[in-house]
Amino acid sequence: MPSFTPGARTMLGDEVYGALQQSILDGTFPPDARINAGELARQFEVSPTPVREALARLESDGLVEKLPLRGYRTTDLLDRTRLTELFELRLLLEPGSAASAAERRSATDLKELAHEVEAGRTAVGEADAYRLLSRHDVRLHDLVFRSARNETVRQAYARTHCHLHTFRLAYTGAYVSDTVDEHAAIVRAITDGDPVAAAESMRTHIERSRDRLMRVVD
User: Fold this and answer.
1) What ranges do the domains of the chain cover?
2) Are 72 and 35 in contact (CB under 8 A)?
3) Would the CA dihedral through 120, 126, 129, 134 be positive or negative?
4) ∠ CA 176-191-144 to the nearest 5 degrees?
5) Helix pair 129-148, 162-170: axis angle to 10 deg
6) Which run of H or E residues covers position 73?
7) Are residues 102 and 193 in contact, defined by beta-carbon separation less than 8 angstroms?
8) Residue range 31-37: average pLDDT?
9) What is the C-alpha R_g of the chain?
10) What is the distance between the alpha carbons of residues 76 and 64, in angstroms, rounded to a whole number?
11) If DSSP states are collapsed to H, E and C, what string results for 15-60?
């Protein structure tokens, strides 16, 4: 467990939150693991306050749950039913958003999308490729939502914390570099201003992502 140099209260809380979130996503804290806030504070060499704040944020993410008088536990991995439901939601929201992005994107949007695809390609060969690719995935999909200019849809999707939960499954090996090529196809269609191709590229990407993860839960 890493320790942190004391600093500003907000920054310290963010660091603890990030470290704990990563430990849950990569399986250091497996599903249904008990988490003791006091022990974490000692291991991180911080006061209990940033640990409690981090755990509250993780509870909001759906990665931990508070047990009465017993501290916290990590939540279970998605089962097949829940995973299916999340991908059904993605298929409802994301192809249409990609089509809207192709029609509404700005020059700044296109620059950021192109930069993100390159960031994904660079991450593939790195030693910590999974961590970098997972962050790339979050940013890319959020950029598409932002380019679509529909904040209601963007926030509705964000509240599912879909990426956090699928990343926990993907650490078993389902997340592959093919994702970056699929992202590139989406961005190419958005750049070309082709809403039909953008929607189809996004739909293909989501269906392939679903199939990769379904092999993990089968």
Assistant:
1) 8-74, 80-214
2) yes
3) negative
4) 60
5) 150
6) strand 71-74
7) yes
8) 91
9) 19
10) 9
11) HHHHHHHHHHHCCCCCCCCEECHHHHHHHHCCCHHHHHHHHHHHHH
β-partners of residue 74 are 64
Alpha carbon dihedral 162, 165, 166, 172, in 10-degree steps, equals 170
How is residue 10 written in tokens?
Answer: 């907000």
User: How far is the C-alpha of 97 from the C-alpha of 149, rounded, in Å?
Assistant: 9
The string of pLDDT tens digits covering residues 2-12 is 445 555 455 58
Three-state SS at 65: strand
Q: 74-104 burial, b for 16+ CB within 10 Å, e for fewer? A: bbebbeeeebeebbeebeebbbbbbbbbbee
Quickly tell me which residue has 């090529």 as its tokens: 181
The pLDDT of residue 3 is 47
Give the CATH fold of the 8-74 domain.
Answer: Arc Repressor Mutant, subunit A (1.10.10)
Domain 80-214 falls under CATH 1.20.120.530: yes
Closest CA to 153 of 211, 210, 89: 89
3-state secondary structure of 71: strand
Its pTM stands at 0.80
